[in-house]
Amino acid sequence: MMTFDGEFLAFFILSLFVIGGAVFMISFTKVVHMVVSIAFTFISLSGLYVLLEAEFVAFVQVLIYAGALSILMIFGIMMTRHQDNEDVPRRPLHNFLVAVGVLCFFGILFFAIQRTSFPGGDFHPGEDNTLAIGELLYNQYVIPFEIVSVLLTVAFIGAIVLAKREEE
Question: Of 6, 69, 126, 132, which one has the fewest beta carbons inside 10 Å?
Answer without folding.
Answer: 6
